[in-house]
Amino acid sequence: MSADTTKLVTYLVEALVDDPEHVSIVEKRTGSDVLYEVTVAPDEVGKLIGRQGRIVKAIRTIARAAGSTADAHVDVEIIG
Hints:
Elements: H1 2-16, E1 24-30, E2 33-39, H2 45-49, H3 54-68, E3 73-78
Parallel strand pairs: 2-3
Antiparallel strand pairs: 1-2
């Protein structure tokens, strides 16, 4: 589960930014909870958040759906 969800989040984030080389994703696990901390270049943060947070909400929804197949609670945070 972990590798597939990590690949999915990585794919989504790298597709949205102009400079995918500066994308860093850290996975933090606590029991069945998984938190992905996404770090991108400071000028790319707005692209991931989107207007009124729509893009990051969509990324979170997709990641949670992927994690639910393995009974894991997945969350995504944009660090910046």
